[in-house]
């Protein structure tokens, strides 16, 4: 769905008589509104109209059968290897992703034939020595198809770096965090480009920053906070390279993947490409980057606002609101966690129910919140995942932000027509968020439960009882976006609700109030959520909101600092109940760590650290 449809435009309004598409006018240039246009204007004019024509010929509902991507032969083999390794080596320190990230040293038929001929015991297992010998000869370790590279714009202490940080110990630590960009900088090896069929790693064109540890590849939504940190580090070219890589994925696959591996093609992640481009533009005013990314931004908007992702909800006044959900194009075990998913589903006997469970698992991974009681019909019971039956308030907030970003970037590029269209679309999205998610009594925005159906074709009638009134930090994410953080009365209400929610603890914001054992629940706090809530409070301009923002940021920085001083590493998440590194979920806490580093640097840039403020640790 193009923005025109969401905002109530008709096809005839967009393709009106004022618009000329005549290649023979204007000395052979495309004429729009009677004037010759540059490439950005041409693409910006044509693409939305092509998308609108496509939408006009199809329904906004889900297809009759939900989409499913096919699995490659390489992934099928590596899943077999993964299962054999688990059976042979046992569960202790076993990481399923390690085996799926391996590359082949020889063509797949050769490797598979040797694997099939390995001696096996009566129960089908392979001896540890035979398995280890096979892996050493025929497979490359997960890191072998990556190259450690020096970022071209890294300097040990950039000019103008964190000028508000006056405390010597905090400044020294910030420089160490800044230096971690060197440790996390990678490029794909030539073998990935020359023989892509031997790798699950995808051949990205530019250098990139990895999160760290088992996360050896680019991840979509992580990249936003990596970029915010790179901008604080004055590493503008590295930040631009990350965006170019994401555009490559969009152009090749039609959406930006969860991560840069072949097993992630079946899903995306929270859509923040436009926010990345706008953040970079605000620092560099690089209009060339804006022009290069613009077609991808329009395509991403279409991806999230059409087909299986889109659901229609009719409010009490019978007004229709178009909202979006997470919905992976997959109904099998996730290859990177195949052994885990199969074990979870082992007691499901019905084939359709098993496929649907696998889809819910993959869709939860698409949300970035894998896993959380937020997505469960019975909190704490992962078998009741129902992510595709939820309209998430944060996803729809990101889409509102996307529309505002596209409008801003189009206007900066001189394309006022597209700017106006997306501004109108943003008004419709804002109205939908207020109508469906906002709860005035509680002063929060709540996720909305859908009826049990996979299609949004018929639309659903709004019922206030379908708001999920459990307390999650996502309930406050809309404050990050301008229409909400500029509403003075609303900000006052939300600040009071946040203070009394139970989420704000001494060491940071907890993800939820439910201790489910999953990593996106109590007592874990996560960098991206801290940043969005804190920045939203700051952008409101309210003195009270800024005080709360600084309180949260200072607590979070102290937690990061204390753990770093104790362990010498930055973690992906933290336990904000006790001020230590986080836990829970299907893998141990990872270090590195891209988005953690980015948020710490962004907070120090915003708030600084005076001489007389204690850092602890």
From TrEMBL:
Record carries keyword Phosphoprotein: no
Top EC class of this enzyme: hydrolase
Residue ranges of the TM segments: none
UniProt family annotation: Belongs to the glycosyl hydrolase 37 family.
Alphabetical list of PANTHER family matching this protein: TREHALASE (PTHR23403:SF1)
PROSITE patterns per the UniProt record, alphabetical: TREHALASE_2
EC number: 3.2.1.28
Pfam family, one: Trehalase
Top-rank taxon, per record: Eukaryota
Keywords: Glycosidase, Hydrolase
Organism listed in the record: Trapa incisa
Catalysis: reaction(s): alpha,alpha-trehalose + H2O = alpha-D-glucose + beta-D-glucose
Full protein name: Trehalase
GO MF, one example: alpha,alpha-trehalase activity
InterPro entries xref list: 6-hairpin_glycosidase_sf (IPR008928), 6hp_glycosidase-like_sf (IPR012341), Glyco_hydro_37 (IPR001661), Glyco_hydro_37_CS (IPR018232)
Gene Ontology BP terms: trehalose catabolic process
């Amino acid at each position: 769905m193009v923005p025109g449809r969401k905002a109530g435009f008709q096809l005839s309004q967009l393709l009106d008589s004022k618009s000329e598409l005549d290649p023979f006018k204007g000395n052979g240039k495309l004429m729009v509104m009677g004037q010759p246009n540059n490439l950005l204007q041409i693409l910006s004019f044509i693409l939305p109209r092509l998308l609108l024509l496509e939408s006009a010929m199809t329904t906004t509902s889900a297809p009759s059968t939900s989409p499913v991507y096919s699995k490659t032969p390489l992934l099928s083999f590596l899943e077999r290897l993964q299962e054999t390794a688990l059976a042979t080596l046992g569960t202790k320190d076993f990481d399923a992703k390690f085996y799926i990230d391996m590359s082949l040293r020889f063509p797949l038929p050769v490797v598979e034939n040797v694997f099939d001929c390995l001696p096996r015991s009566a129960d089908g297992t392979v001896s540890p020595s035979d398995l280890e010998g096979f892996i050493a000869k025929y497979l490359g370790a997960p890191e072998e198809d990556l190259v450690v590279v020096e970022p071209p714009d890294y300097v040990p202490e950039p000019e103008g770096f964190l000028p508000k940080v006056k405390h010597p110990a905090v400044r020294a630590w910030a420089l160490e965090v800044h230096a971690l960009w060197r440790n996390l900088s990678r490029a794909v090896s030539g073998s990935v480009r020359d023989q892509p069929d031997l790798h699950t790693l995808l051949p990205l064109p530019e250098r990139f920053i990895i999160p760290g540890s088992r996360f050896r590849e680019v991840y979509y939504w992580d990249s936003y906070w990596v970029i915010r940190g790179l901008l604080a580090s004055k590493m503008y070219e590295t930040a631009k390279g990350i965006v170019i890589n994401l555009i490559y994925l969009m152009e090749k696959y039609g959406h930006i993947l969860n991560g840069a591996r072949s097993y992630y093609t079946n899903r995306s992640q929270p859509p923040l490409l436009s926010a990345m481009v706008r953040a970079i533009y605000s620092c560099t005013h690089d209009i060339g980057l804006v022009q290069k990314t613009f077609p991808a931004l329009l395509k991403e908007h279409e991806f999230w606002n059409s087909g299986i992702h889109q659901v229609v909800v009719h409010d009490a006044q019978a007004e229709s609101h178009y909202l979006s959900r997470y919905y992976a194009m997959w109904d099998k075990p996730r290859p990177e966690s195949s052994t885990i998913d199969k074990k979870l589903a082992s007691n499901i006997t019905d084939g359709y129910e098993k496929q649907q469970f696998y889809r819910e698992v993959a869709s939860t991974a698409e949300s970035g919140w894998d896993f959380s009681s937020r997505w469960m019909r019975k909190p704490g019971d992962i078998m009741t995942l129902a992510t595709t039956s939820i309209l998430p308030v944060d996803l729809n907030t990101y889409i509102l932000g996307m529309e505002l970003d596209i409008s801003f970037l189009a206007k900066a590029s001189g394309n006022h027509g597209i700017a106006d269209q997306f501004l109108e679309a943003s008004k419709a999205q804002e109205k939908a968020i207020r109508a469906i998610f906002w709860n005035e009594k509680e002063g929060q925005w709540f996720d909305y439960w859908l009826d049990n159906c996979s299609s949004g074709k018929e639309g659903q009638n709004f019922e206030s009882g379908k708001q999920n009134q459990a307390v999650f930090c996502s309930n406050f994410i809309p404050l990050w976006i301008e229409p909400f953080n500029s509403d003075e009365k609303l900000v006052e209400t939300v600040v009071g609700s946040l203070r009394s929610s139970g989420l704000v603890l001494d060491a940071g914001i907890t993800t939820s109030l439910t201790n489910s054992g999953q990593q996106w629940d109590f007592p874990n706090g996560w960098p991206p959520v801290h940043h969005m809530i804190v920045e939203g409070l700051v952008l409101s301009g309210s003195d009270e909101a800024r005080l709360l923002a600084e309180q949260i940021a200072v607590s979070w920085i102290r937690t990061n600092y204390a753990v770093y001083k104790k362990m010498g590493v930055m973690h992906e998440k933290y336990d904000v109940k006790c001020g230590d590194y986080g836990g829970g979920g299907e893998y141990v806490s990872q270090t590195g760590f891209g988005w953690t580093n980015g948020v710490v640097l962004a907070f120090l840039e915003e708030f600084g650290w005076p001489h007389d403020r204690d850092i602890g640790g």
